[in-house]
Amino acid sequence: MKIAVFPGSFDPLTKGHEEIIRKAVALFDVVYVAIGENAAKHCMFDLERRLQWIRQVFADEPRVKTCTYAGLTVDFCKRMGASYIVRGLRNSIDFQYEKDIAEANKQLVPEIETVFFASSPELAHVSSSLVRELYHHQADYSKYVSFEL
Question: How far is it, in rounded angstroms, from Cα 98 to Cα 87?
Answer without folding.
Answer: 7
